[in-house]
Design brief:
alpha/beta; Rossmann fold; three-stranded parallel β-sheet; binds guanine; globular; six-stranded parallel β-sheet
């Protein structure tokens, strides 16, 4: 491997330490403790792990952290009632409803019911619209793309203007906001997806390549321009090999192959994942600061 390994775990730990210090200062000076409510519906094991991690990190930051665990048969009306209660609760500054939701609940209806000022996931139309119209500083930016941008800047600094950025994946949660953030940084941005013609050729044009498609090891070594910065957002569990209890976790990038071409690459696990949680804490702190009328 020749590429620099981008250590998201270390960057996230440093950011969380700073957030904990700032949260303590906010409590001391304004008597406001940032409050995060995490809601999980059903018993998806991966979601349970993610949610437990979010609640635990909030506690480590000194936040008021509450978790609501609802059964798999919860109705949309019941979930909307909980969201309304959290919207009205002055101790809660951030509300996160873990996705995916069971099929009887329309995720869009729930996201739209969250007060945009408490939408620390950045999924509400109001926040998505602010990001798309170049006002990300007034929005909550979705945690994964925001974290990925920090990692990109750690490698390339602020000089992103004119770089060719290719985002593989067009989800509302990652691909689209990621493209908006890269565009706001004056990159020339291409959004590629499962229907893109000659995806390898499109990827080969990238100085910055962000993979967020959810396809294990899709991006191969010869798709990557020598010297590119590669950010792998995918978290995929491979089927267990004989004798293994669980399959290996891999990203959307064939790591060993791509590391031989790239200048820098994020690992899976330990790359973008920890940054997503750190950015959720930062968004919650930002919300509490806005509530308290202090600049962050
Ligand atoms: N499911 C997978 N990632 C996320 C995320 O960032 N936020 C929420 N709410 N659900 C998710």
């Amino acid at each position: 491997m020749t590429a620099q390994l981008i250590d998201g775990k270390a960057s996230a730990a440093a950011l969380i330490a700073r957030i904990a210090t700032d949260a303590a200062l906010l409590l001391e000076t304004k008597q406001v403790r940032p409050g995060l409510a995490v809601v999980i519906v059903g018993d998806d094991p991966a979601s349970q792990v993610y949610v437990a991690n979010k609640s635990r990190t909030a506690e480590r930051c000194g936040f008021h952290s509450v978790q609501h665990t609802l059964g798999p048969d919860t109705s949309e009306v019941q979930l909307l009632a909980l969201v309304a209660k959290l919207n009205a609760d002055p101790a809660i500054h951030g509300i996160l409803v873990q996705l995916p939701l069971p099929k009887q609940i329309a995720a869009n209806a729930v996201i739209r019911a969250i007060d945009p000022a408490k939408d620390v996931d950045g999924f509400h139309d109001i926040n998505a619209g602010r990001i798309a119209s170049g006002a990300a500083h007034e929005a909550f930016v979705p945690c994964t793309p925001a974290g990925a941008m920090i990692l990109i800047r750690e490698v390339l600094g602020e000089a992103l203007a004119g770089k060719n950025a290719v985002v593989v994946g067009r989800s509302n949660i990652v691909g689209k906001p990621m493209a908006s953030l890269l565009l706001a940084a004056d990159c020339t941005v291409t959004i590629a997806h499962s229907r893109t013609a000659d995806l390898p050729a499109v990827c080969r044009g990238a100085d910055i390549l962000v993979a967020a498609v959810g396809r294990p090891e899709l991006i191969r070594g010869d798709w990557v321009k020598p010297g590119a910065v590669v950010v792998d957002v995918g978290i995929n569990r491979l089927p267990a090999a004989p004798g293994e209890a669980k399959g290996r976790l891999v990203g959307d990038v064939a790591f060993d192959e791509v590391a031989a071409h790239a200048a820098a690459i994020t690992p899976v696990p330990g790359g973008v994942g920890p940054m997503t949680i750190a950015l959720l804490m930062l968004n919650t702190l930002t919300s509490a600061c806005r509530h308290a009328g202090v600049a962050i």
